[in-house]
Amino acid sequence: MCHVIVTCRSMLWTLLSIVVAFAELIAFMSADWLIGKAKPLSAEDMDNRTGGSQEPYHPTLGIYGRCTRISHMQLSRRDTLCGPYAENFNEIASGFWQATAIFLAMGILILCAVAFVSVFTMCVQSIMKKSIFNVCGLLQGIAGLFLILGLILYPAGWGCQKAISYCGHYASAYKLGDCSLGWAFYTAIGGTILTFICAVFSAQAEIATSSDKVQEEIEEGKNLICLL
């Protein structure tokens, strides 16, 4: 018989697992990892514009995507075009960024799988006598290691030609040059920290769903068990 067990700790772990997976996925897909040095508008662009700011703009560069302003184009109030600069994996600007993409993709894949499974832990708490919470916590720890490896390798690619074109000639491995870090990089770091928090907190979720109070309510024949 399926017992639906909901506790504050298990629900918090489930929500955090989902949030972490989405945060890392959004950061990975974003082009806002590096914010390039300011580029002024050309005279022709300024003449063609029908209002709006004429301040210099900052192109952004991601692991495989970029956002930049296309000269001599007006896109109904959209100043920039965003999309992948690499049509395939081999065209990613740096070997270090290729490794970053692999490690981040592996970590995100695991996190998404855990987030999907976590939704069903209200009904199923163990498989083959193994606690799902403990297994998911272990997987989150492994995912966190993949994410750390990706984030460590990412700055090593700042010396590639693509990054130099955005950040100036002073850019090199682990040196930003004229660039600054975008929100996607910080989101990836924050998501990595939360991943390890989730891995640790999974043990608390397992304790909460296997507590004596839960067992007492199961023995009383209750199918829906909600505890603080």
UniProtKB/TrEMBL annotation:
Query: Cross-referenced Gene3D superfamilies, in alphabetical order?
Result: 1.20.140.150
Q: Can you name a GO cellular component term?
A: membrane
Where does it mainly reside? membrane
Does the keyword Transmembrane helix feature in the UniProt annotation?
Answer: yes
- For this UniProt record, give its keywords in alphabetical order, as a comma-separated list: Fertilization, Membrane, Transmembrane, Transmembrane helix
Which residue ranges traverse the bilayer? Answer: 12-35, 96-120, 132-154, 183-203
Query: Where is this chain's protein located in or outside the cell?
Result: Membrane
- Gene Ontology biological-process annotations: single fertilization
Q: Which Pfam families does the UniProt entry name for this protein?
A: L_HMGIC_fpl
The way it spans or sits in the membrane comes to: Multi-pass membrane protein
Q: Which domain of life is it from?
A: Eukaryota
Query: Which PANTHER family would you find in this protein's record?
Result: LHFPL TETRASPAN SUBFAMILY MEMBER 2 PROTEIN, LIPOMA HMGIC FUSION PARTNER-LIKE PROTEIN
Which family does the similarity line name? Answer: Belongs to the LHFP family.
Q: What is this protein called?
A: LHPL2 protein
Q: Which organism is it from?
A: Anseranas semipalmata
